[in-house]
Amino acid sequence: MKVIRVHQFGGPEVLKLEEVPDPTPGPGQMVVQIRAIGVNPVETYIRAGKYGPRQFPFTPGSDSGGVVESVGTGVEQFRPGDRVYTSGSITGTYATKALCTEPQVHRLPENATFEQGAALGVPYATAYRGIYVIGDARAGETVLVHGASGGVGTASVQFTHAAGLTVIGTAGTEQGRKLVREQGAHHVLDHTQPDYLQQIAGLTEGNGVDLILEMAAHTNLGKDLTVLAKKGRVVVIGNRGTVEINPRDGMGRDASIRCMTLMNATEVELRGIHAAIIAGLELETLRPIIGKKFPLAEAAKAHEAIMQPGALGKIVLIP
Ligand code: NAP
Fold first, then answer.
1. Distance, CA 286 to ligand 1 centroid (Å)?
2. Same domain, 235 and 127
3. 306 shares its domain with 185
4. What 3-state class would DSSP assign to 13?
5. How far apart are CA 17 and CA 7, in angstroms?
6. Domain of 255: which CATH number?
7. pLDDT (tens digit per residue) in 3-19
8. Distance, CA 47 to ligand 1 centroid (Å)?
9. CB atoms within 10 A of CB 290
10. What value does the mean pLDDT take over residues 260-289?
11. Contact 39, 303 (CB under 8 A)
């Protein structure tokens, strides 16, 4: 089978297309034939060595959409031919096949494409956990999806609109703002403009927003505290540096800053998260948006693209 392998940390050029023997499933394992692969920012951080030591060579990736090829003994929920998406893998998903454990594999409803399946594992699970498990969102509240045009942002807009929140989304390009509006945001702002957050007061009758899902805390956390409602919560999902805040902006509001990583999700949380994702796909309240597509051999280009501004949903690799 074809795989992307990393033999040393470095820039996108360390992603090498190679041929390796097909995997065979052990007890409780499955081989998934991959039809589309989701590319997430975290895979660029791991490739660059920012997430600490790894055993080389390794194949990046956790997210994909595909078909079960074979199952090991003890696998109960799946059989060969089932349409699935993955949210993790033993051997990595930047490949034509991946070895997975049963909990890493989920049923992909008929009305979702394999590319849409590849957009779920990290982005939709992160959005759900940020909104409900960490953010305690409630119907009737107002949410600011600060960075709504990318993988996690589009998922967050779809989840919160369907759950009865008023949604304010931001994007840095005209095309991005159009996309955010189409996903169900009630109001859309341009995060490249000076003072764009001043519009929040007018959009919320002076109350501020109850919840912020923050994709760029290194730029925005200080400003976020100034646009929260009383008892408002900021959920830090994305961050690429340090930031100065004035705690006094939060004190007068009884505000909280809540930080999260999907990697901390418990097994019980993950079961609930994937049940919600599958239900949302079936009811079509969730409709993953596919932006740029690259062949598997051009994984390096996909890693360059995901770090550029101008996000439009999910970047996928096609094996
Ligand atoms: P993505 O698809 O590349 O999207 C990035 C988003 O950030 C885009 O909407 C982009 O908007 C927006 N953005 C850029 N500059 C911004 C600014 N100044 N203010 C507000 N938003 C800004 O990435 P993603 O998969 O959605 O992930 C988003 C972030 O969350 C990344 O940093 C990622 O590493 C992190 N993340 C964390 C977890 C976790 O477990 N905590 C899980 C998944 C992702 P424009 O391109 O329109 O400017």
1. 19
2. yes
3. no
4. helix
5. 11
6. 3.40.50.720
7. 999 999 999 999 999 99
8. 18
9. 17
10. 98
11. yes
Which contiguous run of DSSP H or E holds residue 244? none
Q: Give the type of residue at 135.
A: G
Looking at residue 255, its pLDDT comes to: 98
Query: 59: number of CA atoms within 13 Å, CB side?
Result: 25
Domain-embedded: residue 87: yes
The closest-lying atom of ligand 1 relative to the alpha carbon of residue 308 is 46
- Residues forming beta bridges with residue 228, ordered by sequence position: 209
Q: Give the residue, by CA position, lying nearest to ligand 1 atom 25.
A: 151
- Which residues fall within 8 angstroms of residue 12, CB to CB, at 6 or more apart? 44, 47, 299, 300, 301, 303, 304
Indicate if 74 and 185 belong to the same structural domain.
Answer: no
Pocket test for ligand 1, best of 179, 180, 188, 215 (most atoms within 8 A of CB): 215
Per DSSP, what are the bridge partners of residue 38? 316
Q: What pLDDT digit, counting tens, does each position of 148-198 carry?
A: 999 999 999 999 999 999 999 999 999 999 999 999 999 999 999 999 999
Range of the domain at 223: 123-263
Per residue, the 3-state secondary structure of 194-227, as one string, reads CCHHHHHHHHCCCCCEEEEEECCHHHHHHHHCCC
List, for residues 97-151, the tens digit of each pLDDT value: 999 999 999 999 999 999 999 999 999 999 999 999 999 999 999 999 999 999 9
Q: How far is CA 308 from CA 270, 300, 313, in A?
A: 30, 13, 13
Task: Count CB neighbours of 185 within 10 A.
Answer: 28
Answering whether pTM is above 0.85, one says yes
